[in-house]
Every structure is written in structure tokens, then in C-alpha cells.
Amino acid sequence: MKENKILQQIIFDIIENQVRDANPPETKQTLERLLQSGYSDADAKKYIGQCVAVELFHVMNHQQPFNEKRYVQNLLNLPKEPFD
Questions:
Q1: Between 42 and 83, where is the model more confident?
Q2: Given pLDDT bands bounded at 50, 70 and 90, which one contains residue 82?
Q3: Of 32, 53, 55, 52, which Cα lies nearest the Cα of 44?
Q4: pLDDT confidence bin for 4, thresholds 50/70/90
Q5: Is 63:33 a contact under the CB 8 Å cutoff?
Q6: What does the pLDDT read at residue 2?
Q7: 3-state secondary structure of 57
Q8: 23, 26, 57, 61: least buried by Cβ within 10 Å?
Q9: CA-to-CA distance for 81 and 65, rounded, in angstroms?
Q10: DSSP of 8-34, one letter per residue?
Q11: How far is 2 from 43, CA to CA, in rounded Å?
Q12: Is the dihedral of CA 69, 62, 21, 44 positive or negative?
């Protein structure tokens, strides 16, 4: 699948905002955990970006509200891929 650079940048911006604002705090905690586990900053953010993409998919395609519980659970499971 072709990479969409604009969407990738939007997802990275979302991650940066969540880390900066500590909202939810699990985003920053997950980034730090992945970095401490030896992942590069870019790779750690790509993993987190998978979790963001799952939520964007549900919001956009299913008109569901952001599910913070699912998002946080997916973050906690990284580097395992998001379940939903």
C-alpha cells in the first residue's frame, strides 16, 4: 500500500500533541517505554501511530466517538499490533 505522507504527518502531529499535553498520559508513557526498549523515536511513533489510526478509522468510517479505553489498551500492548 502506498504511504500517505500527509496522513502520516497528521498522525505524528496528534502523537506530538498528546505527548506534550500528557493527554492521555499513556501516550507519553508508551513512547518512553518503547524508546527505553531500544526502538528509535521514528519507529516508536509509528507503533503509536497504528493505535491512532485504529481510532481514526472508527471515528471516520463508523461514526463512532473516540474510544479512549481501546486506544489506551492498544498502547499498553505495543509493540504488538492493535487488536481492532
A1: 42
A2: confident
A3: 32
A4: confident
A5: no
A6: 60
A7: helix
A8: 61
A9: 21
A10: HHHHHHHHHHHHHHTSSHHHHHHHHHH
A11: 18
A12: positive
